[in-house]
């Protein structure tokens, strides 16, 4: 799976997704150059129920190990 994020400043980020299991997809962006460094974002979307999913975001600078930015939990309102 692939998707493109278009920002208001005109920049774009391409994310390619692979499925770890039927319940999780890992998206990783193409490296983006800015201020002399290379940045890369990874997101894991995990389905937790019929009405909810979790997102974990991690970030890498210049090819270093990914570090967690945060987690989010989304639930459909009844």
- What's the main sheet like? 7 strands, antiparallel
Number of helices: 0
Shape: globular
What fraction, in percent, of the residue positions are helical? under 10%
Distance between the termini: 29 Å
The counted number of beta strands is 7
Element order: H for helix, E for strand: EEEEEEE
Indicate the radius of gyration in whole angstroms.
14 Å
Strand percentage: over 45%
**SS-based class:** mainly beta
Low-confidence stretches: none
Number of domains: 1
Q: Which whole number gives the mean pLDDT?
A: 91
What labels describe this entry?
globular, about 70% strand, about 80 residues, 7-stranded antiparallel beta sheet, 7 strands, mainly beta, single chain
Structure description:
- The structure is a single chain.
- The chain has 78 residues and is mainly β.
- The chain has one domain.
- Helix content is 0%, strand content 72%.
- Strands 1, 2, 3, 4, 5, 6 and 7 form a seven-stranded antiparallel beta sheet that branches.
- Strand 1 and strand 2 form a beta hairpin.
- It starts with a strand and ends with a strand.
- The mean pLDDT is 91.
Describe the secondary structure blueprint for this structure.
Blueprint: E1 2-6, E2 12-21, E3 24-29, E4 32-34, E5 37-49, E6 52-61, E7 67-75
Antiparallel strand pairs: 1-2, 2-3, 3-5, 4-5, 5-6, 6-7
Write a short abstract of this structure.
The protein has 78 residues and is mainly β.
